[in-house]
Specification:
The chain has 460 residues and is α/β, with parallel strands linked by helices. It is built from ten helices and 20 strands.
């Protein structure tokens, strides 16, 4: 009987450890599933307002529904918002070279400073004369490394207008059409003449050795467009007087240009921020099945972060829950590249006097933590700090600018991501029996545009 009594705790401990290992394997499998899909080619980088973002939103909504979350958006799980009012070439935007009709938006693109006018003439290569359209070879421009190409095109157009040009066509530029189209989101000062950019195929025609002259007819016209983003919001209603918000942005950059060539590059965004989104879903799954019922939980996948925290700003101003009842907000951004030498960075510990002790209790010795007190940073927690809500910001400290073209699912540290998931859950667990956390304001860093945490760091 004594042997059985002594063996029983050992058996129970072994059973618990095995069950925990099984749960961990399941969570890691789910993390891999989420990140692999969200960072796949099919989603084309999840740029806000693009089809890939909508596919991601649909996936996240489905996962929330399967977990058993209640919809808490304006329309089911989703909440839409305007990111930016921009422009695109209108139907009346046309251009012909001799008898060839060019396709607006790909073969030629009006530049954002272009006048809404027409111009035509018989144009001879390398002969720019008053009262005619000028052809400007971008390869032969005296480029200024301190100015963007858009600024330099604007400067060249202003010079051409003062010299009597009726229009300008830039050819042999290194930019991809996608990058030029993104310029239309900007609002530089308008010029008095129409100005367009043409792609590589048209550039070859304009710079051909046997080219004698071209009959060119161009008309610039713009159509205003509204670019919208989509937040995905789920809810665990425990009928509690307090609510915890846990969020992560799921949008990314879409397509860009290779810095060493004119090739179009897809930014997959596995770490930025499919990792945070995947962790968000797994934390929601754990909370839904938990005994932690003293807070309600709002689970938000934000869009529009890359354009300036548009999604979180919109929710904070159009919340579907009473923000005065919010206990605190946790933000997960770039948590997939945990390196123990660099550590897991936790921002916002100065936003409540209770954070230091809570994190101390929840943290494990296995994970090196680096703390920052500020509630302001280049991510979505800032929008809630501005509403006097205590925040925490989890970040593994890898600069996204150096990862954009190499941010794929196979580079993720899944064991490290699991440790972040567990730490967040344990923090929520530690606060379950506590009163609503008090808010304190913190100093603001000089530069909130950086992806690294700033301010005084404390190693644990």
């Amino acid at each position: 009987m004594k042997k059985i009594t002594w063996l029983l705790p050992l058996v129970l401990t072994t059973m618990y450890v095995n069950a925990q290992k099984k749960n961990d394997r399941k969570t890691i499998g789910n993390l891999q599933l989420h990140i692999t899909y969200l960072s796949s080619d099919k989603l084309e980088g999840r740029r806000t307002g693009a089809p890939g973002e909508q596919l991601a939103a649909a996936y996240i909504s489905t996962q929330m529904q399967q977990i058993g979350l209640s919809p808490k958006g304006d329309d089911g799980f989703v909440q839409t918002f305007i990111v930016k009012e921009s422009r695109e070439p209108a139907t009346a935007c046309t251009m012909t070279i001799n008898e060839d009709h060019l396709l607006a938006g790909s073969q030629f693109i009006p530049l954002p400073f272009s006048a809404v006018k027409s111009a035509k003439g018989e144009v001879i290569p390398n002969v720019n004369e008053p009262d005619n359209i000028w052809l400007i070879n971008a390869k032969e421009m005296d480029t200024d490394t301190h100015k963007s190409m858009l600024e330099q095109y604007l400067q060249q157009t202003q010079v051409a207008a003062k010299s009597g040009a009726t229009g300008v066509i830039f050819y042999n530029g290194k930019e991809a059409p996608a990058a030029v189209l993104q310029w239309l989101e900007q609002n530089p000062p308008a010029t008095s003449i129409p100005a367009v950019w043409v792609n590589n195929d048209v550039s070859k025609k304009l710079s051909a050795d046997d080219a004698n002259g071209f009959q060119i007819n161009m008309q610039v016209a713009f159509k205003p467009i509204k670019r919208t983003g989509t937040n995905v919001i789920g809810y665990i209603d425990n009928k509690a007087p307090k609510t915890i918000i846990i969020g992560a942005h799921y949008d990314h950059l879409g397509f860009g240009e290779d810095k060493n060539s004119t090739a179009k590059v897809l930014y997959h965004g596995a770490d930025d921020n499919a990792s945070g989104t995947a962790a968000l879903l797994e934390i929601a799954r754990m909370l839904k099945a938990s005994h932690l019922h003293n807070n309600n939980f709002v689970i938000i996948a934000f869009s529009g972060k890359q354009q300036g925290l548009y999604g979180s700003k919109y929710f904070a101003s159009h919340s579907t829950v009473d923000l005065t009842q919010v206990n605190y907000m946790i933000n997960l951004d770039h948590i997939g590249r945990l390196d123990q030498a660099y550590g897991l960075q936790i921002g916002g510990i100065g936003t409540s006097p209770g954070w230091a002790a809570i994190i101390q209790q929840a943290a494990t010795k296995e994970t090196h933590l680096v703390y920052d007190s500020s509630g302001v940073g280049p991510s979505d927690h800032t929008s809630f700090y501005r509403k006097n809500i205590p925040v925490l910001y989890f970040f593994t400290g890898i600069d996204s600018d150096s990862l954009q073209s190499d941010d794929s699912a196979d580079k993720i540290n899944y064991e490290g991501t699991l440790s972040v998931v567990k730490l967040v859950y344990d923090i929520v667990d530690k606060t379950n029996e506590m009163n609503k956390l008090a808010f304190t304001s913190t100093r603001e860093p000089l530069n909130t545009g950086s992806t690294t945490l700033s301010g005084k760091m404390m190693n644990k």
